[in-house]
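Field log, afternoon session.

UNIT: design team B
ACTIVITY: writing a sequence onto a fixed backbone
BACKBONE:
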């Protein structure tokens, strides 16, 4: 039986403390899940010269299951790895007076991205865009999202936030502001 790789052997010291903890939780989740089951003997033995397309589905399904499990373990292990840097309320404008949102902006990552979570209510179902504003006008997109009733969506701001004065929600490409923050 192979021994599990040591976490410190896998992850170098150049990884920051938040990322290191996130990776440790993922490592522990994968160790707890254990290795995949062995392939049944009926599937492992050769079947002769004829190959069926169906026999290719098992390796594909196993690969997809592994990818899904890895993604799920990473998603669960991330937990509260992202620390909220700041939170902003968004209020509806005269174009959507009943709308409101909360924007949680997490700590900037090593690449300069600001991951965000936005919780929206009161907007009609549809497609919207979160934008950064300068002088109150939309200038940079932080992503598109769909609203269906109360909605929580994950977005990203790959910008230097000091260059902007707020955020707004608009129908894509319209420039018509439905929700806005007072300031960053």
């Amino acid at each position: 039986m192979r021994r599990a790789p040591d976490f410190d052997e896998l992850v170098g010291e150049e990884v920051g403390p938040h990322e290191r903890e996130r990776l440790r939780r993922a490592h522990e989740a994968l160790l707890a899940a254990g290795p995949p089951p062995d392939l049944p003997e009926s599937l492992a033995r050769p079947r002769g010269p004829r190959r069926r397309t169906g026999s290719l589905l098992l390796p594909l399904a196993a690969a997809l299951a592994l990818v899904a499990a890895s993604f799920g373990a990473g998603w669960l292990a991330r937990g509260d790895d992202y620390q909220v840097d700041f939170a902003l309320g968004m209020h509806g404008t005269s174009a959507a007076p009943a709308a409101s949102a909360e924007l949680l902006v997490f700590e900037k990552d090593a690449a300069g991205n600001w991951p965000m979570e936005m919780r929206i209510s009161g907007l009609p179902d549809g497609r919207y865009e979160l934008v950064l504003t300068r002088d109150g006008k939309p200038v940079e997109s932080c992503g598109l999202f769909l609203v269906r009733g109360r909605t929580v969506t994950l977005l990203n701001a790959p910008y230097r936030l000091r260059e902007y004065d707020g955020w707004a929600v608009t129908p894509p490409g319209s420039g018509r502001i439905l929700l806005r923050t007072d300031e960053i």
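LOG NOTE: The chain has four helices and eight strands.
NEXT ACTIVITY: expression trials, pending approval
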